[in-house]
């Protein structure tokens, strides 16, 4: 019985070692970069808006998922092509979701290249002046 427990404990230790990864051992996971997306890729306006609806909801950071998905649901379909491209650049150019979040809630100053009418709308949306309960829209 004692030998069986020893064997089981050894197997568990080996499994733990096998399942752990050395690839993230020395990586600072507090600052994870967003994968780059080619915002200048030619697309129809409808395809770009459909992609942006999805990307606004699936950020990887719940705070931005909620802010951007509800913002996109409210405004994106009425955007002109120029406004849509500004929004695309805003959510796909920065290398970190926290940067976008801090700009929206005005904890950090917005860089000049993103300080435009879309960011102004986002900041107003984040303030939620009417105190509406927000929830992510469903994916289609």
TrEMBL record:
Cellular component terms (Gene Ontology): mitochondrial matrix
Database matches in Pfam families: Sdh5
Major place of residence: mitochondrion
Disulfide bond as UniProt keyword: no
Keyword Calcium tagged: no
Protein's GO biological process: mitochondrial electron transport, succinate to ubiquinone; mitochondrial respiratory chain complex II assembly; tricarboxylic acid cycle
Alphabetized InterPro entries for the sequence: SDH, SDH_sf, SDHAF2
Keywords: Chaperone, Mitochondrion
Compartments in which it is found: Mitochondrion matrix
Subunit structure: Interacts with the flavoprotein subunit within the SDH catalytic dimer.
Protein family (similarity comment): Belongs to the SDHAF2 family.
Function in brief: Plays an essential role in the assembly of succinate dehydrogenase (SDH), an enzyme complex (also referred to as respiratory complex II) that is a component of both the tricarboxylic acid (TCA) cycle and the mitochondrial electron transport chain, and which couples the oxidation of succinate to fumarate with the reduction of ubiquinone (coenzyme Q) to ubiquinol. Required for flavinylation (covalent attachment of FAD) of the flavoprotein subunit of the SDH catalytic dimer.
HAMAP family per UniProt: SDHAF2
Protein name: Succinate dehydrogenase assembly factor 2, mitochondrial
Organism in which the protein naturally occurs: Euphydryas editha
Lineage, uppermost ranks: Eukaryota, Metazoa, Ecdysozoa, Arthropoda, Hexapoda
């Amino acid at each position: 019985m004692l030998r069986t427990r020893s064997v089981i404990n050894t197997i568990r230790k080996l499994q733990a070692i096998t399942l752990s990864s050395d690839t993230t051992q020395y990586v600072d996971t507090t600052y994870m970069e967003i994968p780059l997306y080619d915002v200048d890729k030619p697309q129809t306006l409808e395809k770009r808006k459909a992609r942006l609806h999805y990307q606004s909801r699936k950020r990887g950071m719940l705070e931005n998922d909620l802010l951007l998905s509800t913002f996109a649901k409210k405004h994106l379909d009425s955007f002109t092509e120029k406004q849509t491209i500004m929004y695309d650049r805003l959510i796909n150019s920065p290398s970190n979701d926290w940067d976008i979040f801090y700009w929206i809630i005005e904890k950090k100053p917005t860089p000049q290249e993103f300080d435009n009418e879309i960011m102004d709308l986002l900041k107003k949306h984040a303030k939620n002046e009417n105190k509406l309960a927000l929830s992510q829209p469903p994916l289609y």
